Amino acid sequence: MPMYEYQVVPDEKGCETCRGGFQILQRMSDDALTHCPECGASIRRLLFPVGVATPKTDSELKNLGFTKLVKRDTGVYENVTRTGNESRYMEADKPHTVPDLKRKIRD
Fold first, then answer.
1. What is the pLDDT at residue 51?
2. Which residue of 7, 31, 95, 107 is 20 to 30 Å from 77, comparing CA positions?
């Protein structure tokens, strides 16, 4: 069940609980609360971002199957997540140095 955050609407005084905001576990199918369970003041559900973890290191990217190219010179990129027989450097005028993305991409 997701956690929802509620806060008193600007026109209401509310109580200590709803003025500062409070969180409550609710089913997604449940209707949003409209009144504070403590004082009955009108409240609204707040939107806040979902926590998403993203890979931070080259090693994590490599383990997840991503390719990271770092620009080293004009038309030259280093493949810092290379695997197997992939070339360490990708050069714009040398197609055989391009990483084999078809081998990495799976359905």
1. 76
2. 107
Q: How far apart are CA 34 and CA 44, in angstroms?
A: 6
Asked whether residue 68 falls in the same domain as residue 100, the answer is yes
Q: What is the CA radius of gyration of the chain?
A: 25
Under DSSP, the state recorded for 8 is E
> pLDDT tens digit string along 30-69?
999 999 999 999 999 987 777 788 888 999 988 888 889 9
Q: Which distant-in-sequence residues (6+ apart) come within 8 Å of 104 by Cβ?
A: 65, 67
pTM of the model: 0.47
> What domain range is 95 assigned to?
58-104
Residue 53 domain-assigned? no
